[in-house]
Amino acid sequence: MSDQFRAGVVGLTGIGQRPAATGAQSGWGTAMPHSHVSAYHHVADTEVVAVCDLDEGAIANFNADWNDTLPEVNTYTSHVEMLEKENLDILSVVTGDNVHAQICIDGAEAGVKGILCEKPIASSLADADRIIEAVNKAGIPLLVDHTRRWMYPWVQAGKLIEDGAIGEVKRVVANQGGPRAMLFRNGTHMCDTINWYAQGNPAAVYAVNEINFEDYGPRYASDGGHDPDTDPAVSILIEYDNDVRAFWNMCKPMPNVFDVDVFGSDGILRVTQERATLTTQNESRVLVTSDIPHAQYTQGHIAGAVVELIDLINNGGTPSCGPKEARQVMEILLGALQSSAGGNVRVTMPIVDM
Q: What's the mean pLDDT in 310-325?
């Protein structure tokens, strides 16, 4: 359809191109797409016209998974060639974070209307700043795929915080466990969620690396974040400029948990992967807890990011998780490494790239 946005995806790992789950899941209905290709295929306003990967094997896997559904998609081993030939409206960057910057810059300079970049935005603040400069110069929106921004029940909790349901936020306590409790892999999702709920700008950070990673840092090794043996868990305390403090408990030997408690002056929000609860005081100062009802969504996760990006392209506005928010995540993570490497000292913002 000529009125659809032409989308191209660079990077054909699982999150880049895996097919959407089929069938219904108990209590949830049809699963939302969990890759960039499947999200563009799912959202009516977009169509995948081109994909790219340096690895011919990854392209072969894409063809095996998608030829029956998307037989006319062009494949490339050079993102530069793809940008030159395809007249893309939207570019997804799903490569290792150490090469995000140049691909985003090339996309902005080639005239795409919007960019969806995987997390973390880059492997250094310098590269994050290069991306920000490029998209600002081009006047286009960029979203970073910190997924809780578009997932139940995290969105509902964020709205309640913004609406004052627990009064002024005072403390955030986050728990993240399991093998993927890795600072730069799933840790980026948790850090963005903490920042979102804290409602302030990070001012300082203290950190202690887990056992066997005492000597990791002070800079990010940037190996793509797929191996738990090369990406540490870190215990982190974050101070914000609104006097909020966040305590982030990250530990690989713990059970697979990903939950956040937000303590306000008038109540408490507890958010897990499956549910959220709101606790407030009644007139007798007795704590009363209730479930936050499920909201009904037709878009979520990466598809939700695509829908938001289209709206930003068409109507402008402020991204829920744009380059500013993604850069703050990187500053906290890199600051944590500097803190731990320096003897668990207090590191103030802004930090200096190392």
A: 97
